[in-house]
Structure formats: structure tokens, C-alpha cells
Write a structure and sequence with these properties.
The structure holds two protein chains of two kinds. The longest helix of chain A is centred in the middle third of the chain and has 34 residues, at 61-94. Chain A is mainly alpha-helical. The two termini of chain A are 61 Å apart. Chain A has helices at residues 6-13, 19-31, 33-52, 61-94, 100-129. Chain A folds into three domains: 6-52, no CATH class; 60-96; 98-138. In chain A, helix 1 packs across helix 3. Chain B is globular. In chain B, helix 8 (147-154) crosses helix 9 (158-178). Chain B is mostly helical. The model of chain B is unreliable at 89-100 (pLDDT under 50). Chain B has two domains: 1-92, Rna Polymerase Sigma Factor, Chain: A; 108-184, Orthogonal Bundle (Arc Repressor Mutant, subunit A), CATH 1.10.10.10. Chain B contains nine helices and no strands. Classes of the chains: A mainly alpha, B mainly alpha.
């Protein structure tokens, strides 16, 4: 007796046999104990697999996803506005009638603070990048 | 409906992404848990896959369906996570997995232990399969995708889905037997 091909067997197990093909195989699938046993084994494997995989409860993804996809836009707008104001402020300050030594002293303070802030932010960013659990909600 | 949501998302309005996330999250969690084996990692993987999908939306062909495209992203991301996990030699999952599993409704402790052992054995066998076999079993058995959907996700013909499923199921059965399980 010729048994089902692998493809037909799988389609039969999974209820994916086209109607015509199912009709033509009907006699064999009704009578062949070997094919029926194979089907029972594969169905049993499926049940065991489903029992072994327990997915966590859904409904928690959106807040985290939303935070992450909307943050870049917020940062982009904030930084764009900040850059415009900084450039405008620097130019206005540079062309203002204040003494040169005052401009140099203020510039030194501003640049020093920016460098300190930059290094702190860089350290935090490096620590965040190295954290494998950074995306998990705490 | 889905197409309209995607077009609105592409204009940058994140609010329209929420229905897609909520609709696909349960299936995504099942698939990710199946592939990764750990609920916390699955959550992490699903969130990251949604973020990646959002970032890739401008390149998404709106004539395609969102589902298969998203599950392609999810599967690739889960595989990357597994590769990353293998490169972190200190990864220990088994005990955490046991803790994370719900106790179930078995009131008889002996029976509950047997069931837990059987589940662990199947999980262990699944982890031992190659990625192609494991993934197709998850898509079919855990999520219950039709062959046409699996073909779209894995980018293979439907006939190949059937033959790969056959070999994956045989491989799982052989692995279970090799691990000492009773003949299914």
C-alpha cells in the first residue's frame, strides 16, 4: 500500500488538505493504520508542545513601546529648539557692547559647564547601553 | 482598517500604533515565549520588535499584510537575542523558567511534579532543535498559523512549509525519545 507523502500527511494532520485532494485520499486515510498512527503521534506532540509553552499575560507592551517611540520625537524637538536659542544667544552676546574680558570669562564658564555636563551624560549613556535589562519595565 | 492605521503611523502619529500593538501582542508573546523559552525575555523581545517595526514602517509595503511582516521582524529579533545569549556564557535560564511557570490547576503534588517534568522535557527538546525546526513548530503548534501565513513569515513556498514541518516534528519526536521520554 502506498502511504501519504510527507506533504499530504502534514496537510492532513493540520487540516490543510485541499477538498479535492482530501476526497482522493479519503479511502487511504480511513483505512491505513500506519498513517492514522502517524497522525495521532504528531497530534500528541502538538498537545505536549502547547502545554510546555506558557506565554505571559498580554496588555503590558504598549506603555513601554509608546515611551520608546515617542521619546526620539520629543528629544528632537527639544534639541532643535535648544540649538536655535544657543546660536542666537552666542551671536547676540558676541556682538553686544560688553568688555572682551567679560565675554571670555562668561564663555569659559559656559564651555566648562557644557563639558562637565557632556561627560556626565556620556557616562550615563555608556552605563545604560551596557545594561542588558534596560528595556524591561521595573 | 489596518492599512489606514499604518498610513497614519507613517505620518508620525504614534497613537495609531496602539491598536496594532494591542492586536498583535498576545500572539507575539506566544511566539516569542516559544522561541526564547522565558517569559521575561519574551516580553522584552516583543517590545523591541514593535519598536523595530515602528522604525521600519516607512519602508513597509502597504500592499502586504502587517501580521506576517511583523512576525518576520519578531522572529529575526528573537534569533538575535538567542545569538546574544549564547555569547553571554553566564546565562542561566532553567531555574528562572521553573519559577516563572504558573503552578497550574493540579492539586495532587505528585501529578503536578510529573507534568512539570514533562513540560521541561519538551522545552529542553525544543531548545535542542535547530532554529528552522523550532521556529516552524512554534508558528504552527503554539500560534496556530495557517500554512500560507507561515510561508509568508518564513519567506518559503507552502510546500516547503509542509515538508519542513514534517522534518521538525520527526526531529522533536526523536529528540524526546533520546532524552528518555516515552514514545508519544
Amino acid at each position: 500500500m502506498e502511504h501519504l507523502t510527507h506533504e499530504d500527511l502534514m496537510r492532513w494532520v493540520d487540516g490543510e488538505l485541499p477538498a479535492e485532494r482530501a476526497a482522493s485520499l479519503h479511502r487511504h486515510t480511513d483505512e491505513c493504520t500506519e498513517c492514522r498512527r502517524d497522525r495521532a503521534v504528531f497530534e500528541s506532540l502538538g498537545r505536549e508542545l502547547r502545554a510546555a509553552v506558557t506565554a505571559p499575560e498580554a496588555g503590558q507592551a504598549w506603555p513601554s513601546v509608546h515611551r520608546r517611540i515617542s521619546r526620539p520625537l520629543g528629544w528632537g524637538l527639544f534639541l532643535a529648539g535648544l540649538v536655535v536659542w544657543v546660536v542666537y544667544g552666542v551671536i547676540s552676546y558676541a556682538i553686544s557692547p560688553i568688555a572682551l574680558w567679560e565675554k571670555l570669562a562668561s564663555g569659559g564658564i559656559a564651555i566648562g559647564l557644557a563639558m562637565l555636563l557632556g561627560s556626565v551624560l556620556r557616562e550615563h549613556y555608556a552605563a545604560w547601553r551596557g545594561d542588558p535589562y534596560r528595556h524591561i519595565q521595573r | 482598517m489596518e492599512r489606514e492605521l499604518i498610513l497614519k503611523c507613517r505620518s508620525g502619529d504614534a497613537r495609531f500604533f496602539e491598536p496594532l500593538v494591542r492586536a498583535y501582542e498576545p500572539a507575539a508573546l506566544r511566539v516569542a515565549t516559544g522561541i526564547l523559552g522565558h517569559p521575561d525575555e519574551a516580553r522584552d523581545g516583543v517590545q523591541e520588535a514593535f519598536v523595530k517595526a515602528w522604525q521600519a514602517l516607512p519602508r513597509f509595503d502597504v500592499k502586504r499584510r502587517f501580521g506576517p511582516w511583523f512576525f518576520q521582524i519578531l522572529r529575526n529579533h528573537c534569533r538575535d537575542m538567542i545569538r546574544g545569549r549564547k555569547s553571554r556564557a553566564n546565562y542561566e535560564v532553567k531555574d528562572e523558567r521553573l519559577e516563572a511557570r504558573p503552578a497550574g490547576d493540579d492539586t495532587h503534588p505528585e501529578r503536578a511534579r510529573e507534568r512539570a517534568a514533562a513540560r521541561d522535557l519538551v522545552r529542553h527538546a525544543l531548545d535542542q532543535l535547530g532554529g528552522e525546526h523550532r521556529d516552524i513548530l512554534i508558528l504552527k503548534e503554539i500560534q496556530g498559523f495557517r500554512y500560507a501565513e507561515i510561508a509568508e513569515i518564513l519567506q518559503i513556498p507552502e510546500g516547503t512549509v509542509a515538508s519542513r514541518l514534517y522534518h521538525a516534528r520527526r526531529a522533536l519526536k526523536d529528540t524526546l525519545i533520546a532524552l528518555g521520554a516515552e514514545q508519544p
